[in-house]
Please model this.
Amino acid sequence: MSFRIGLLFVAMALSACVVSSTLIFTEADIEDSINLIANSGFAPYSMMGDKALPGWNIHQDPSTKDAANISLDPLISLKGDSSLKISASNRQITIVSEPFNVRRYGGYYARIMALTDSPEAPQVTLQMVTFREDGKITNRFRQKRKLSGEWDRMTVSAGFLRPGVSWARISVIIPPFKEGSIWVDDAGCWEVHGFKID
Model:
């Protein structure tokens, strides 16, 4: 009996290794789709505090009001005239988009472009989180990547959303790092597919 149970666990482990999602969208899928992210190119609207970066919220953990390590960089950008620059910090920094509407039967493609000059770059996470109207999380989709000195594309494909889903946000999570900077630009999320309802 214990031999059969052992075989069952081995079969389950092997099947978990080979099962992969067929839900993969690409840049080609966003053609003719509307970007759901406000201020996707991190354009400065003002040099005054809270109004400097509409469409985005920035959180630091542990929490602090000092944001000297986060700035808009007019010298390095991929889209538009500026990018968001995050300089080395001993805090985790999370950049969160304003909410946007999603549909349960929609398929979504989220993207950011990022680069670093840090010799020991941290592993950055792009995440798309979907919510019910009351704010309860329904789904999380994420990709982690160690950045390079070139613009790296990070993407997330999302679909098969749970019942009751109403809205979503994308976020970029940057763990503490000791040297250099990270730049983020050309963010977006597009509804690229509509699943058939049975």
Remarks:
- The longest strand covers residues 177-194.
